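Narrative of activities, Objective 1.

The group set out to show that a structural description can be obtained from nothing but a protein's sequence at a throughput compatible with the screening campaign. Below is one input-output pair from the validation batch, recorded exactly as produced.
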Amino acid sequence: MYPKPLFTIFGRGVYLYGICLALGIIACFIFLYITMKKKKFNDASIDMIIFIGFFGTAFGIFAAMLFQSVYNYIDNPAAGFHLSGMTFIGGLIGGVVSFLGVYNLYIYVIHPRTKIGWLKPELNATLSDALPFIPIAITIAHAFGRLGCFFGGCCYGAPADWGLYCAGSYDEVTGIFTLGEKVIPTQLFEMCFLLLLGGAMALLYFKFKFNYNFAVYAIAYGIWRFILEFVRDDDRGQFLGTALTPSQFWCIFMVILGVGYVFLQMYWLKKLMRHPELANSAPAPVEEEEKKPAPEWEKVEEKAEEKPAEVENTPAVAEKAEEEKTAETEKPAEEKPEEKPAEPVKKSTASKSGGTAKKTASGTKSTAAKSTASKTGGTKSTASKSGGASKTATKTATANKKKTDSNK
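Output recorded for this entry:
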């Protein structure tokens, strides 16, 4: 804790609380800028969100002071109303409301109707595209702010023997510094919680493309802050005479808002998202790979696969070739003149031989016709059948000759 000013500028003290708050705001906007660049937001969209964000931050600081001043006035009206102190939840409410108000005014009123060129740029992203990571930036700024609270000696917890000296005060007019007693360092506990929550939301968004971080932030911080208020010991007043503190009332509202945001994102906001990171990412051209000679073992496999195909095609080709040869063989066979039977030695024998020869010749013709008509037999089968017929005729002629000799 160090509530004293580090130095003075123009007679005004500069405190660690203010430095931490400024560093948190700067870190918040640096994170937003880097993330929007990473997500391919164009310059016009980045400028719009950053500019409106500056306005929302400034109004949020004013709202934080305004809320705390109202609480103070309700608690002690006799002291009068004056701006003093700040409350984070009041600043969060004022910042969000002012941001949404200015954004919708620009998008739905100014941008469609203005004729000023720099007020009507082409936007490739909307607030719906930024809402998933804006809560991460808020936790960064808030964590720095809680560290400033620790240095400033405010927002401390109840007295505890194991606590820290972080509940002191400093009177700028008199210059008197009061150390205070050991208390629960709720500022540091909340800072650690915010860093863990911001890391979890960053993991959900960047790794799993989770778009419900605003709901996670509102519900998680609402529950955390509601519980933490029971161990806070700084004067925060009561909400309209109830047992709740003003922060606890707004925490209930935050949780309800977080649950409602889930359905809002699911059924409406996701339709407004333009996903610039997807629209600007064209698929890289695929380069044609150079053709490399296949290894020897692949060639052997290809040959082995080709062999069955050749065997399957061989009978068809051979059958076609045989049919062509058979057709060529049929043609001369039809034109071939009939063979004359051998002349017998004597008339008696000739008459008998003639009958036998005619029968033999007719058998030979029928055999030749049958062998020629069968197209599947091929040239070899035709030749074999013709050979068989000629042998039969020779045997018949020999038998007739023997009979003739015996008649002699």
